[in-house]
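Methods: example folding runs. The two proteins below were folded one after another, and each record is reproduced exactly as written to the output file, sequence line first and structure-token line second.
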Amino acid sequence: MRADIWQYYEHVHHYYGCPHDKPCDHYDLPEPLEWEQALLTTCDDVECCDSKFAEQNLKDWSELASIAHQFEALIRERWLRMTITQRKTLLLEVWPKLPLHHRPDVDDMVIDACAHQRNTSRLVRYALPYLNLEDLTLPNPMLLLINARSRYPPSTFALSDYEMARMIHLRPTLLEPTKSSMVMAGSYGEILQLDTEADAMASINRGEAVHPRVGHQILLMQHLLLDFLLNFAFKMLPDKIDTIMPELLEADLGLEELPPLLDNGDQYTTLATIIREAPYGIPAVLNIGRLRALVSARANEAEDHIWLLREDPSYFAEVVFELREHRPELLPGLVCGRTHANSRDDVLWARVLRNVAVDGYIELSTWTQVLQHITKLESLSQECAKDFGVDQDLPKEYFDVLVETWFFLEATQLDLIQQLKLGFPASPGVRAHWSQMCEPATEDDIMGSLFTPKFKKKPDPDVKRALTLFTYLWEPQKRETLGIHTIVEVLENMLQNNSRAKVMTSAWVASCLSQLSIITECLRQLNCFQPWAKRVKCALKDRKTKLLIAYISDLSKWHPILNTSFKNTNLVTLGKPGIKFRYPINKRRTRANVETLRSAEAALDKFWEAADDHFRVHVGKMPCELVQDITGERDLQRTPPWVDPEKKSLHPQVNQYIHVPISNTKHDPSKQITGNFDKLAIVTNDKTKTHGTACPSFKPPSCVAKGDGEHQRTYHVDARSHKVFRMLFHAPFSTSPPREVPWTDFLHAMVAAGFSAQKLQGSAWQFTPKGLDVERPIQFHEPHPQHKLPFTWARRFGRRLHSAYGWTGATFGLE
């Protein structure tokens, strides 16, 4: 579901604000709030005391490096032997007030009151949000933290530490103008005096230095962290402290790398784990290859989606119905309690079907452009890897591509937020907690949605918290304060750990969150690319108008298509879900079932033929023509007509001739024809494909069979995996009854076939080939909220695997 094409509401808000906004009363106050006052230090005081902080931090780091040089392997061994309870006890001895839960900075004060307010007594947890028992009692985070902080000086982490502590960022109005700045790289903690305030600000914007007040906060945060790590090391090594060699404290240690840590004992990796462990590692390491794999798989999924809409009647019907269930017209009015006038069937179905016919193509276009940006960035980063250092500017071409990529990611992120803003309140699981703000005189307009929680019993605090966090995504000031990446991360953690919060989230919402998480992860990684990330942000501010105009101009090609209405046409009758799209793919093949399958496919073909004609007549082009340079040639699978099986005779035919043996000297056995001659055996596969693309000249496919032609590699898998692939692919002579496939069995089968599996945020999983003759990754969505693949889903997965890799049921054999 797309936003109004003429109103790039979220984009304008993000880059320019809006005069009609009602900002938080605290945001524009000239006087500091209570928590801000506790953090304020005058620039004169900073100059006096921060050199001592910097000196102490370097001394603590040197001691930590010495301990790691001698005992890191022993610390790792002892820590991994501990139980979670033992780790918790030790950590509380080191820091008795260590927060219990993940992301303690997003606390009740922020959620229940105001995103600009803070609890003054909790400033330390705001400053070090990654220090908490939920995360640190896991096997890896604490070891990663020791490993990274002992090998690299504090200056390496200065800017990233500050970026992670968003909840203690002072408002710009409180950062007094000054001619001073503090250097972090090189002369750690040194105060520089410049000629003018403008020179100092320019140095800060380039990432060469920070404001003295910001620098003071960084030094304090790193002092607390290094003190925590030293105390942790002492607790882990009570019998070794006296053996630390003091002469190593001032030496260039050159620490050896230990073997990589295991993935917490899990069989599959998760994006949530990668994001959760990122604060404990080394910043400024751009893994663009991994980002490209994430985006590439998502772009491939978008292409598969538009083909499934044209190919699979049951998938089409499910998507149409699901999209209808997320329309804002279904929300009750805030005052009258009635649904919107446009919730009438004739209007609503017309809008839904128009969106289904268009949105998939826009989504494919968007993700393809994201992939192009990331691919170009990866190529340039490899070319320029040796051309610059931390103290140098990026090459101009590389910097410009970085700015353009960053902007496009932000714009895509805002578009996804706009879709969630429109669709989430109306989703079935939360619709009761939202109302529609509407004007009776404006039938075509929906003024917006309002969060009006209505819990029949005592509200579940986690459910209420999740609903509030969703609203923060589309409230510009609050998402700016918390950070979109933080909100998505907290939401994902909550939805995974709270069953009620998970159940209330529909599959459509989970899919949107998956897409949003990929974009936010790309932006998170770019934001860690310090100090150049600060320069990119400054360039974005300077170029925002030019970049936004280019972005809107590119999307303008979709405006005529999005303005096309399906109202008062036969498209509603043709596309509305009903009995005509019944597709019993899970039933045994009989004449009646085959006819039902063919009838549903014909009904779907008729809708798409009519929709394409409608766009061609009213716009001059079809949506698929705008992406025809992206979509490759693909065959639509169609069910062939039923052919009666050959009847077998109950009584064997008696030979009407006398058998007379012939000597082999007069007869060559190699030329003898043996076996039964079956005329039908030379006719073909039971599934039919058509040549050519479904667009731009889509026609209902014929049912002429074709052979495979190419030799397919056979994968030998275990019995558990083989059962899964038998469900995914049609086997004409299989006697196995259709059944659901447990999600864990599907994961096991994909890994057995040579893929690595990674859980993304939301409902998506990514499968990346390992050691196969293919490179394309692929994404599938875990059934939500249950954890079993319905048989119809399994067959769709099989179709996507066939389109991507050419797999069939014959591809897999038992070991």
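Second run, written to the same file directly after the first:
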Amino acid sequence: MVELVASNVFSEKQIGYITLGVYLNGNYDLVTMFIEHFRKEIRNQENEPGQCLAIAAAANIGGREIAEALSGPILQALINPKNSDFVKKTACLALCRLYRETPSVIQLEPTFIEGLNQLLFSMNYGVQLSAASLILILLQRYSDKMALVLPTALMQLGKIFFDGTVSPDYLYGRNPAPWLILKYMRILQYKTNWDESETDRITRILDNCLQKTDVSLAAKEVHSNLILLFEAINFIIARQFSNQLMQRSASILGGFLNAKLSNVRYLALESLTRLVQANPSIIPSLDQHRQTLYLALRDPDNSIRRRTLSLLFAVCTKESAEEIVHELLNYLRFADITMREPLCLKIAVMAEQFAEDPAWFVDVVLQLITMAGDECSDGVWHRVIQVVSNVQSLQRYATMTSFGSMCANNPHDRLIALTAQLVGEYIQITDIRPEEVIQELIAKYKIASDISKGIIITALAKIGAKYPPGKQTVLEFIQTLTSSTNIDIQQRAIEYITILNAPPQVMQAVFKPIPPFENKKSSLLRKVMLEQAEEGLEEEDEEDKNEEDPSKFVTQLPTKAAPAAPAAAPAPEPKNNADAMDLLGLGSPAPAPAQPKPVAKPTDFGLGAPATPQNAVTDLLSAAPVTNVPAPLNDKEAIKKHFLANDQGLCFEDANIAVNLSIQVNHPNAILSFNIQNKTGGILTNVGVHIPPVPFLAVQSKPGATQINRGEMTVFQFALRVRQPFIDPPSYTLRYTWSEQSHNEVLDLPFNIFKFTAPFNMDYNNFFARWGQLTSPAQQATASFNPVGDPTNQMKQVMTSVFKVPVLPLQVPPGNVCGAGIINAEGGVLGILCRFFIENGKCNVQIKG
């Protein structure tokens, strides 16, 4: 390979570079010997083919060492005006690949930004497309610094549409350069401020795209038109540009619901769902399509059925809830197994949220349990118990109705559990004879599961305590269970016999009624939001992934897999310790573990400047003990510090509104709730919170009210799931209108990757065996600081409250604290090992992964 790469014959050099790209990756020590040769080739402007081959090979091999050594020469090749268009295209795509692996390789100097901006003026559309791909990646992290390119993107987009300067070679389906238009549209989603002329220009462009609705043309023209149409709609949704354009988009998408092409129907359903979530005011205009949606539930394509269900859930209101729930219950009778559980969840949430009479919610849940059985999750009947405990007028009806359903033939186990729980609590307010209830529960005990048996025993004990004539029957039955092989049943039976034979005041003290549950956000709603976020991940089209990842244009490499790699294979749940141990490489020591993707330093996670790790960690320690204290008014650093160790608090406030953020983590997902309060004496309009799409997080939104009356508040919620590790969190846009004046704030979300860390238990041998294997600089980060007060206590606070890693009970010397955690990303489980220790009078923190 060395001789081939150094050859002066192009065919031999080409084979040599291709071989390098196929057989090597950044984990091989052999890469070091080629770096200097790559650098010379990249700087040699006299040999353009060799220059391009070296740039492409560097991107294909990848790795931190390649990125740090060669990103500078590749950047110079990109902005050097003497280089050809082909070299610039290759350099752009190579930087896309290297940046995704090692974001620190690109430093956004003004000269580099200006050079990128100039590339958008190139007459070569291939150069424009490559530059737009790189710009789109950089905007996701540096939207403020890259503001220079946004007017250029708009200008070039206008030229493509209206100047007629595009060569016929770039026409596809009668549309000029549709893929370049797509890139410019996505770039302009990051533009927040629009003057009147810019608004007119983009409105004309969007109007042009929204006219491309004819799906009866040739396949090439249809595909080209749909690229522009749906990207325009995506832009309108992301920027919520105008209500008129949103209404028009809804009308177009509604017409596509009857399209013959299943792909078009799928895109229409998915886009309509996001459109409704962004602007609920368009829901009335979709009422005419409800019958079409009911028919779409019977579509042979499972993905269309799921998207239809999501759209029906999004468009449901108080006025339409009864009709939609009725149709979904009818569909549930013959729905396939994959649809039944999400159907039950969404039906239950709609029945609870939009029920004018709480009794209707109970009736719906009983139908769900009867029809769906095992596919109706326990959370549904748990929610009934919570609602009934809080609504006194509902307790009698719910108890009698559920008991009547249970007495029917072959009741499902969940119905038995629900009924037993209700009659045990509220039998005294019903007309049911206690003897009848006792006999029914004893009869159903034989067919109940172990969990339901425990609930039945408790219910019988409570009935026996409330109804003395039936006490003896209950005692005789429970006595037969004292020799049960199930330890839980046996223990319950013995304890309840003792309690039932105790004085009345003891029974009253033990069998107190369950108190009302806290009126918190429904756990069913939270589960639906998380499932929708996961659904978006699972059904993401591979072509869309390639569009979001321009580095896919550079040939992908086979990675060298080692058995001890921390994330060698995905694991579905963190609770599976056996799988996670394998993923962390703890099964057995490996002689030569492969290096994983580079791990960012702790100071890169918003804890301070990378150049001063000691100050960063000291700041971190000072932030760790803070609890339940609101951050100072709009002090970004103070807000960031506050949310390092806290999951709720004030994140923005001005004279008109106050925004409180709450973060709820349910590994590997998180829900962000923005609670917006109106502080003015009037009405706030056009209220909204928007998180733009980013490659490292999947985001599913549930918008709140766009209008807030005086003294009231609204809540905007977002379900997040980690796709890949990240350093800087995304930004979000907060907007509202007061006194005919629009307010827009672009802020950073105050959380980091450690919010998604799940605890992981390890013993001494496994911890230090794995610790000893992680020796590469790319797998670890360290920092030191001067101790303040009790350093051991501070170290424990930082580990548990900031890194979200529990302190492991290991037998380690004094002044040492160890912890382990895992992050479930889309690509697999990422292992984290933490160690705090005191050495030479200083506190040290070391993270490996």
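Comment on the second run: The two ends are 33 Å apart (CA to CA).
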